């Protein structure tokens, strides 16, 4: 069978070209943020509503709760588009040389290969994060810990991006096509971002 016919056959039998889990293996499910699907990562809490294995890699969906100081530094994804919907709180996003102020009920789309960042401007923010295709939450899983409660970590020694040794983070992010920007890149790509 020729390569195009092989791919067509895989697509029909598995629902995708990579020969992954058959499409008919997926089942409807109900999920909410619970301790069993919640993790702490660099000072914020995220709950996986749809991981890569749930969607055959189509997308990831998480509910996240963050405080100022727990945001990721300016970065760029080579593989994924991000969509944030603000459930509560306020944040300021930086991308394409623009600054976007967001409040509850608003959203922002952050396309792949476009450097971006966001800063929380309220005491706390809760967001829905959709990343497509899936895979980003797999990177976070490798770098996070099982949450001990379904709230933000409260320990004074909670590790954030500002206090962490980022050696392992950079290595894992590189495997997933994510790169933190240098100070010069931040100045060039998002001059309004406070350094």
Question: TL;DR of this structure?
Answer:
The protein has one domain: Jelly Rolls. It is built from 5 helices and 12 strands. The protein has helices at residues 3-14, 52-55, 136-143, 167-175, 183-189; strands at residues 38-41, 44-50, 60-66, 75-77, 81-88, 90-95, 98-103, 107-110, 116-120, 125-132, 145-146, 178-180.
Strand order across the largest sheet? 8-5-10-3-2-1-11
Terminal Cα span: 57 Å
The H-level CATH homologous superfamily, spelled out, is Jelly Rolls
Number of helices: 5
How big is the Rg? 18 Å
Mean pLDDT: 89
**Count of domain modules:** 1
Characterize the structure shown:
This protein has 195 residues and is α+β, with helices and mostly antiparallel strands. It has one domain (35-189): Sandwich (Jelly Rolls). It is 21% helix and 32% strand. The chain is built from five helices and twelve strands. The strands form three sheets. The protein has a seven-stranded antiparallel β-sheet with strand order 8-5-10-3-2-1-11. The protein has a three-stranded antiparallel β-sheet with strand order 7-6-9, with no helix packed on it. The chain has a two-stranded antiparallel ribbon with strand order 4-12. The longest helix is centred in the first third of the chain and has 12 residues, at 3-14. The chain is globular and about 45 Å long.
């Amino acid at each position: 069978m020729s390569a195009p016919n092989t791919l067509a056959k895989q697509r029909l039998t598995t629902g995708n070209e990579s020969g992954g889990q058959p499409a008919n293996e997926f089942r409807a499910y109900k999920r909410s943020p619970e301790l069993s699907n919640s993790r702490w990562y660099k000072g914020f809490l995220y709950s996986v509503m749809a991981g890569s294995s749930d969607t055959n890699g189509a997308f990831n969906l998480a509910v996240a709760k963050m405080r100022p100081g727990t945001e990721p530094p300016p970065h760029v994804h080579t593989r994924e588009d991000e969509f944030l919907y603000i459930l509560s709180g306020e944040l300021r996003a930086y991308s394409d040389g623009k600054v976007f102020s967001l409040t509850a009920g608003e959203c922002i789309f952050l396309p792949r290969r476009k450097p971006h960042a966001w800063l929380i401007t309220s005491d706390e923010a809760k967001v829905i994060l959709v990343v497509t295709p899936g895979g980003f939450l797999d990177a976070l899983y490798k770098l996070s810990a099982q949450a001990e409660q379904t709230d933000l970590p409260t320990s004074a020694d909670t590790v954030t991006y500002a206090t962490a040794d980022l050696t392992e983070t950079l290595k894992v992010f590189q495997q997933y096509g994510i790169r933190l920007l240098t100070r010069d890149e931040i100045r060039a790509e998002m001059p309004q971002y406070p350094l």
